[in-house]
Amino acid sequence: MSYTPINYIEFKSTDLKATKTFYSQVFGWSFTDYGDRYTAFSDSGVEGGFELSNGPITNGVLVVLHHLNLINIKEKVLKSGGKISVDIFSFPGGSRFQFLDPSGNELAVWCKE
Length: 113
Known about the structure:
The structure is a single chain. By secondary structure, this protein is an alpha+beta fold. Helix content is about 20%, strand content about 45%. It contains two helices and eight strands, in the order E-H-E-E-E-E-H-E-E-E. It has helices spanning about 15-25, 70-80, and strands at about 5-15, 30-35, 40, 50, 60-65, 85-90, 95-100, 105-110. Strands 2-3-4-1-5-8-7-6 form an eight-stranded mixed sheet, with helices on one face. The chain starts with 5 loop residues before the first strand and ends with a strand.
């Protein structure tokens, strides 16, 4: 059986500039901006990013899994009791969807285009 590794971790941020300053000064992380609402980080042991949020942050971490076939893995999520919270969408470099597990935890799955 193949496995689907945790590939990326996504956080919310109310201030990207302050977030980048904090994590670079405290932990030595590096950042790459993708527009004015998203920044990706590296040099942390796992890659991830921060998405700008205007609202209160209640579930601030999104664990992102990688899979080669979004349609196939989406069907498995649904057949196993998960619910789609954000349907498949494209972004620069790939596509992804987000889902809720049976306990309500939200995760995402992405693949390269």
